[in-house]
Amino acid sequence: MTPLLTVEGLGVEFPVGNWPRRRTLRASFDVSFSVGRGEIVALVGESGSGKSTIGRVIARILPAKAGRVTLHGPGERDTDSFGPRAGEASMRWRQRVQLIFQDPAASLNPVFPVGHPVARALRLHGRADPKTVDERVAAALEAVGLHPGATFATRYPHQLSGGQRQRVSIARALATDPDLVIADEPTSMLDVSIRMDILRLFTTIRASGTRSVLLITHDLASARLVADRVVVLYAGEVMELGPARAVLDAPRHPYAQLLAAAATRSGDLRAPLPAAEGAPKVIDPGPGCPFAPRCAQATDRCRAERPALTAVSPDHAVRCHLVRPE
Ligand code: SF4
Q: Ligand 1 atom closest to Cα of 298?
């Protein structure tokens, strides 16, 4: 598959606390994966696993401490290559990479009708001239299932349901004709009945064959439904990555197995791990495997030596000392 996005060795850290007790929160460490054109890749993990941080670095909202993000295609760029004309390059990056947030109510300005942010995105990125912008807004809203688009464009966010507001957010993101849509927990605040409809919109985006979606979610069911490949994160590190079916139905990493088992036990694939099983240690993490404090199979080696990401098949890799290539 033609690559659209390559993330290599991404590291993100934040200082926490005040001097002399200042410590380091490691939000992401040595994260590498790629997204092909026309592909949906899901980043899955619990809260605090670093998935939203990675999405924000790719969207250039947050800086990285280490590593590189490359957006392939015409005008190929990576996050290290913003030189003297950084403003222009940033604008082009933002046109190519769009972010959809978890809470559509918070991401829409309540004082403007919902056609306004769509029109603004079209104008800002030169996708419509003033004479046709209203028609383009209506078409953009209809493309995400809001009919008639011209009527919806005049409504205010509070006049729409949660699902309709999320559709507006998706219409706004697609208005710039992006190559990559990053959807950060796009269905977590929606009723179960409309989650499927929103997820279907992402498969429609993929159907273009050129646009890709990075789906950030703790919802294994959503990932299983729409993702082509899955990246499992724990404490900011990649634990397992590969084809969605292989990773979600027959996970090899103990953490991925625990996630899948917790979801199956509760009958809810969105279920988080039980709190009693501990939380990821992301502040001043020690050496060794980050999952060792919670892993039933941990050995002295696990606590002392960080496992490498090992390929178990050509497109499937696992970070665990116990896993051997097939
Ligand atoms: Fe568990 Fe060790 Fe594998 Fe880490 S490396 S997941 S601690 S068995």
A: 7
